[in-house]
Amino acid sequence: MKIALITGGSRGLGKSMATHVAARGTGVVLTYNSHPEEAEAVAAGIKKAGGKAAALKLNIADTTTFDDFAKDLQATLQKEWGRQTFDYLVNNAGTAQRTPIKDTTEEQFDQLLQVHCKGPFFLTQKLMSVMEDGGHIINISSGLTRFTNTAGVATYAAMKGAMEVYTMYFAREYAHRKIRVNTVAPGAIDTQFAGPNGRSEEQKKMLADMTALGRCGEADDIGLLVAGLLSEDSRWVNAQRIEASGGMHI
Question: Which residues are catalytic?
Answer without folding.
Answer: 141-142, 156, 160
